Amino acid sequence: MNNKRRIDQTEIAEVSKIDTYKSIIESLLFVTGEPLSIREIGTIIRCNERETLEIVKEMEKDYKNRSRGIKLISSNKMLQLVTKPNNSEYVQRLLKTNVRQSLSQAALETLSIIAYKQPITRVAIDEIRGVKSDRAIYTLLEKSIIKECGRLEVPGRPILYSTTEEFIKYFGLDSMESIPSLEDILNNFGEMSKNLKSE
């Protein structure tokens, strides 16, 4: 009898521990507003990758409950909290604007590189920016502003990225041909610099 009671208490403690982890992960995702990697989350909650994945699977089951207004997106070991699509009309009423959030500086930098250099690999983007672009790419993919458009025929066959029709709509362009050339941008920037110096 005592053994059974100990087992029950152990199980209760384990469930309570998992619920605590789920609560922490939910807070992390809510605060950042950006996708977080399983590895990053595991480091913060001090769990290995396998344990973190198990907790995330439990969270995914929780969020499948129809009464929840948010859902958990899991892709390529990256997690993000988003509102349920069928609630977008009401979210839009609250914001009184399009539900698409403005892009972060990192996402804009990454998108600019893709727009002018497409098709391009993540490694090439990282080299141009000088920092990792995984999170920015994930955000742009989630917003359907970019897409995977094949693989580069080199060892490892890295994924190639390009812009989508949503990119054109997002920036109010008529077509991809409407994007100003890099030369025009540089010339305009040069003119602006001269005018500022003359003032």
Automatic annotation (TrEMBL):
Main location: cytoplasm
Pfam families, alphabetized: SMC_ScpB
Localization, UniProt: Cytoplasm
Family as reported in the entry's similarity comment: Belongs to the ScpB family.
NCBIfam families: SMC-Scp complex subunit ScpB
HAMAP family the record matches: ScpB (MF_01804)
Protein function: Participates in chromosomal partition during cell division. May act via the formation of a condensin-like complex containing Smc and ScpA that pull DNA away from mid-cell into both cell halves.
Self-association state and partner proteins as the record states: Homodimer. Homodimerization may be required to stabilize the binding of ScpA to the Smc head domains. Component of a cohesin-like complex composed of ScpA, ScpB and the Smc homodimer, in which ScpA and ScpB bind to the head domain of Smc. The presence of the three proteins is required for the association of the complex with DNA.
Protein name: Segregation and condensation protein B
